[in-house]
């Protein structure tokens, strides 16, 4: 097994992309900590993985809270005997025209999408550097590379994740650790269900039209599966991917080629 014995923490692992990442890495033999705020969701994911014969444990964590992140680091390190891979996946989305974005919305998005990535990376990276091996994968977005109407706050937060990824990757490049980002287009998760509902509410389009609009962002005319993102994360964690560092890899069927 490529992944055997890797010890992994996935933030936002209770559903959607994070749950798919936890499942795929566990199926490859990793021991996985599934972290998020909703304890029912992380317990459900972890117990399903255990029932399938994998090693997984749920741990409550709010990535915006330094004390909560430090508690996650301490518990995960003790439970797994160390942490080799951190997947910074926890995130929230919103959309509004610039004039309607409140400072509160802006700060809430940055707290989870940017400060959360910063706090978790700062917590887990030193032990990876010390052991001379580690992987950090940040789940950014294709709008970490391009802008689009009505998502100034979300896109700015994901651009920040890409800049953070590139800088930290440069900092640890000679120390056996890689830091990369994945940049998906729309993915079939609750976040996208919410996006469709928001478009319907604000524009009066039908749900089918709203969904077709999202699909038309990709030349493949589709919304992507969480497993496709999980596979991208898995490949970055493979030992043979050690030369890939500081990259922000787009998964959108070819709309954004960078
Ligand atoms: P979901 O809303 O389905 O899941 C988000 C996860 O993040 C949940 O487990 C949620 O759990 C967790 N989370 C949110 N806030 C916090 C917090 N403060 N502390 C800890 N965990 C938190 O979203 P997706 O699976 O769709 O998204 C996952 C990531 O992928 C996000 O970073 C998102 O921006 C990114 N992405 C998503 C795309 C999409 O189309 N769906 C496209 C491109 C990128 P809880 O609320 O219980 O804490």
Short descriptors:
15% strand, binds NADPH dihydro-nicotinamide-adenine-dinucleotide phosphate, Rossmann fold, 2 domains, 258 residues, seven-stranded parallel sheet, globular, alpha/beta
Protein architecture, described:
The chain is an alpha/beta fold and 258 residues long. The protein has two domains: 7-185 and 226-240, NAD(P)-binding Rossmann-like Domain (Rossmann fold, 3-Layer(aba) Sandwich); 187-223, no CATH class. The protein is built from eight helices and seven strands; from the N terminus they run βαβαβαβαβαβαααβ. It has helices at residues 16-27, 39-51, 66-80, 103-131, 152-172, 190-203, 207-215, 226-237; strands spanning 7-11, 31-36, 55-60, 85-88, 134-139, 177-184, 248-251. β5 (134-139), α5 (152-172) and β6 form a beta-alpha-beta unit. α4 (103-131) packs parallel to α5 and α6 (190-203) crosses α7. The protein is globular and about 50 Å long. The protein binds NADPH dihydro-nicotinamide-adenine-dinucleotide phosphate (NDP). Residues 11-12, 14-18, 36-38, 41, 61-64, 89-93, 112, 139, 141, 184, 186-187, 189-192 line the site of NADPH dihydro-nicotinamide-adenine-dinucleotide phosphate.
How does the SSE layout of this entry go?
Elements lengths: L6 E5 L4 H12 L3 E6 L2 H13 L3 E6 L5 H15 L4 E4 L14 H29 L2 E6 L12 H21 L4 E8 L5 H14 L3 H9 L10 H12 L10 E4 L7
Parallel strand pairs: 1-2, 1-4, 2-3, 4-5, 5-6, 6-7
The protein binds NADPH dihydro-nicotinamide-adenine-dinucleotide phosphate.
